[in-house]
Specification:
Layout lengths: L2 H19 L7 E4 L5 H13 L8 E4 L2 H9 L3 E2 L13 E4 L3 E2 L5 E2 L6 H10 L3 E6 L13 E6 L4 H10 L6 E2 L1 E4 L2 E4 L7 E6 L30 H9 L4 E4 L1 E2 L4 H7 L6 E2 L3 E2 L6 E5 L5 E5 L2
Parallel strand pairs: 1-2, 1-4, 2-3, 4-7, 7-17
Antiparallel strand pairs: 5-6, 6-14, 8-12, 8-13, 9-12, 10-11, 15-16, 17-18
Helix pairs in contact: 1-2
Amino acid sequence: MSANLIESAKKAASERAVSDHFDVKSHKRVGIGSGSTIKYVVDTIKETCSREASPPQILFVPTGHGSRELVTNAGLIAIDYETLEPDHDLDVAFDGADEVDADFNLVKGGGACLFQEKLVAARAKKFVVVADFRKDQSHLLTNWSYVPVEVAPIAANNVLGSLKALGCPNPSVRMTDHNGKQEPLRTDQNFFIVMAPFPPLRLGREPEPKDDELGKTKDGPAGRLWTAEKLSTAIKMIPGVLEVGLFVGYNGPTAQKLSSGHRLQDPILGQAGQKPVAVYFGMEDGTVKERKAT
């Protein structure tokens, strides 16, 4: 599979997503995610804005240092998340994903920006995901092998032990090369990323495996015991965990509807709006597959 094919797929999906969900006339605040696909989203937004008679004063909220550079290099206005007023939601947020399942749950965080990505997704009226065909799977952790977990460095060993107790066979701190030496990768919060592999996750609408099936299925020792929501909750409760790279719960419009127009706050899952309203996959044949949440 050629790199050019994958990049073309990302570009096609980005152009379609921006065309469908970015309104240069009415949008005031837009979230910009992280990862290799987002470059094409920013390029398309830049091109759309350039067709206006006068530069639109849209504020863009990036999810990390890399996406901030993309925004500013495109001549767009970047602002910090913490400068948003409490009543100022994002009109839309665009981001990539490491994997998307049949129920619009996501694995994200391969770019080590999962904490800020979740903040931005949950603040958006519409959260839109753009990816290539490899990320479209029936269950999470099918091709993508681990759940990214952002942890305080002081608590890393404790988190590793707790993940093993949840059925994670071999959790590890993600490393990176620094001047020829392997060191733990640091996030923008100066935290570590723990890679937590699990067998493919069960959809919430699927039945739980029977006791005598656990440990005997083709999916590994947990036999799809965990759903994305339950695993996210269990990991988040481990002391020292800042955030979990599973995006679950409601999407933005559903959250607003359930809360009569006010932001819904779930005591376990946190601020709702983590799941996308639409996902765009660039396909191998050059077409774009769109999946819309119902």
